[in-house]
């Protein structure tokens, strides 16, 4: 198909140079018909692309929807700390995480507290690894995703694999990662290679600012607890 386009373009240029009006008219009409043919052939892809753009814009601009998604997730995290269940919850941002989500178990499900609790329950076959919340409307795209473990020698020896994996991903991408520790029974946030601990409301505020491109995404999250890496 590409070769056909190239040949038509070359023929059109030749007709312009040689001033072949009949050929130009024929190619003009053919070009208009070709546009319609392409729209018909790729209508599904075009529709899906426009839908994804619309959903992406909605999630990024609809602050209430964003808060609802974050609150659902943090409520699930609170329950998991009470039940001593560990979890890794990744928020994809500008840098795509398809390489990680494709290696996990595809879900593409609406985020909810019951869904997260069922995924991370120790008896669930999906509880190992991280879940990824993609940028398309806050959907949970995949579970059982393996994250890169940070090799930073300056990290505290008290940090386990879960925290090091969260830090590792945020060292390489602009993702934000919530970590639920079953041992400490606390929720922390990793962003830009840092581990931020604080009260639940501090974590919520920091996460919302990061996802909104606010101050926390540009500075060192000064309002969160100073108990860091």
From TrEMBL:
Q: Which residues cross the membrane?
A: none
Pfam families given in the database record: DAC
Q: Where is the DAC domain?
A: 43-201
Q: Name one GO molecular function term.
A: ATP binding
Known catalytic reactions: 2 ATP = 3',3'-c-di-AMP + 2 diphosphate
| Alphabetical keyword list | ATP-binding, Nucleotide-binding, Nucleotidyltransferase, Transferase
GO BP annotations of the record are: cAMP biosynthetic process
Judging by the UniProt lineage, the source's domain of life is: Bacteria
Alphabetical list of Gene3D superfamilies matching this protein: DNA integrity scanning protein, DisA, N-terminal domain (3.40.1700.10)
Instruction: List the SUPFAM superfamilies.
Output: YojJ-like (SSF143597)
What is this protein's record name?
Uncharacterized conserved protein
Q: Which organism is it from?
A: uncultured delta proteobacterium HF0130_20J24
